[in-house]
Structure formats: C-alpha cells, structure tokens
Write a structure and sequence with these properties.
Rossmann fold, 12 strands, alpha/beta, 263 residues, 2 domains
Length: 263
C-alpha cells in the first residue's frame, strides 16, 4: 500500500441468490480526496459502500484500512474503526429524541454514578448541531415531528460527532435543500482537509464532477474505470456508465449549488 492510500478494496464479490451484485470490484480511496462513485441503478454502488461500512458482508475479497486488514462484523464496529456511512434511507429512530439519535450507542459518556444525565446529553447535542451550522433543531426535539431533511441533518450531526477517517455519502444530497447541501459539502471539505477522505455516491454527473478529485464508474456490478479530473467529461462518464454512446439529454441534471457558494 502506498502512503497516500487510506482505504483499499480488492476483488470484492457479492451475490444475492443468482444475482451478481459485485464481481471482482476493486477501489482505492486516498487520504485528502473526495472519491466519486457513479453508475446506473443496479451498478453496485450502494452494495459496495454498505460492505465498506459494515452494513453487509462481501462473499469474498480483501479490504485494507490504513494499511491493515479491515474486517468488521457490523456498522457499529466500522464506526469504531473510523468509517461512517450516510445512507439514502432514513437512519434515525422516530420514537427517540434528537440527542438520543446523535449519541446512540455512546450514552455511557453521559452516565454519572449510574444515572444518565439527560440534560448533559441534550447540551452536547446542541453543541454538535451548532458546530455544523444547524440552529433550528435542538437536542430535546422529538424526531417524529421532524421532516425527512431535518432527520438527515441529525445524521450529519451524528457523523460529525464520530469524526470518521472515511465518510461515505450514499445518494443523500438530493434529499437536502440548498442549505442542507451546503452543510454536507462543508463537512466533506473539512474531512479531506484533516487528512481523511470521502466516498461520494451520486447519480448527478455535474455534482460529482464538481466536487470529486477522482471518479470510479461501476456498471452491472463490475469496475469499469477510475477517472482523474483531467479526464472528466459528461459524455465519457455517461458512455462508461451504460457501455455505449448515448444522447446528450439522456440524464436530467438538477444540480445547482456550486463549490464557491458553499466552500
């Protein structure tokens, strides 16, 4: 492993019954980079990212993190080792407070003499939310009363608290408003500035070219190619995604924020 490689996946296979979700896929994420992962639906993007994050296991292959063999039994163990994922799906519990969702699994740090200090946990949640730029949500709020986007912001606060070395963002930006995207992009930038990395999964070609240092394309569960910035071109990325040349308007891009607006 070179000094710059933070995470490596080699020859990853994953099948669901007769369906091959991943076939001999390899990926390298470098320290200080935002690495894009793109492909059509069913290309294997989410399968690969959830394997890295410990949500599910591969059938075979090897992963390395900071030069050492990386094997985790679940997502909690992955978080403990320094890899967090922000999933497309809802990742908060409606019957819990914002603070309980942020610190789930870490409540013991608020226990004194065997008693959980709810006020201390609420105060800590407010601090984390403020640090990422969220003032309209408080630790004492009930998650059930919040919108889908606000609950995604809670997940961002949870990620900020865990301070991972590798932050995986799985198709989340489209669920966020302009302000929410700004918070996400700011967290991504901070992660790379601190020597960590981001694996950024998006179907939006404009967005992924704007923010990513390199882009890996998957198609039908297989690795196709990794592009560097000098190779970026929407037509090439689309061709790699589908395996043929396609029309200019095959994809509708809804991406509007720019790097300058948020960074």
């Amino acid at each position: 492993m070179s000094q710059d490689n933070l995470f490596e996946a080699h020859n990853i296979y994953k099948s669901f019954g007769a369906t091959k979700a991943l076939a001999d896929v390899s990926l390298t994420i470098r320290s200080g980079e935002i690495h894009g992962l793109i492909g059509e639906n069913g290309s294997g993007k989410s399968t690969l990212s959830t394997i890295i994050a410990g949500v599910q296991k591969s059938d075979s292959g090897q992963m390395l993190f900071k030069g050492l063999d990386y094997t985790v039994s679940d997502s909690a163990e992955a978080v403990g080792k320094g890899i967090c994922i922000l999933l497309q799906e809802q990742g908060t519990f409606a019957n819990m407070s914002v603070a309980e969702n942020i610190f789930i699994g870490s409540e013991k740090m608020f226990v004194k003499n065997g008693v959980l200090s709810v006020s201390a946990m609420m105060k800590a949640a407010d601090k984390v939310l403020n640090e990422i730029g969220v003032q309209h949500i408080r630790g004492s709020d009930d998650c059930e009363s919040l919108s889908f986007e606000d609950r995604k912001l809670i997940e961002l606060a949870r990620t900020a608290y865990f301070d991972p070395s590798v932050f995986i963002v799985d198709e989340t930006s489209t669920a966020l408003s302009r302000k929410g995207r700004g918070i996400l992009y700011g967290m991504m930038k901070k992660r790379t500035e601190q020597g960590g990395a981001v694996l950024f999964i998006s179907h939006d070609i404009d967005e992924i070219m704007e923010f990513c240092d390199r882009i890996t394309v998957l198609r039908d569960g297989c690795f196709v190619r990794t592009l560097v910035k000098s190779e970026y071109a929407p037509s090439l990325i689309k061709q790699l995604m589908v395996g043929r040349e396609i029309g200019e308007h095959y994809y509708r891009n809804d991406f509007t924020p720019t790097m300058e607006e948020h960074w």
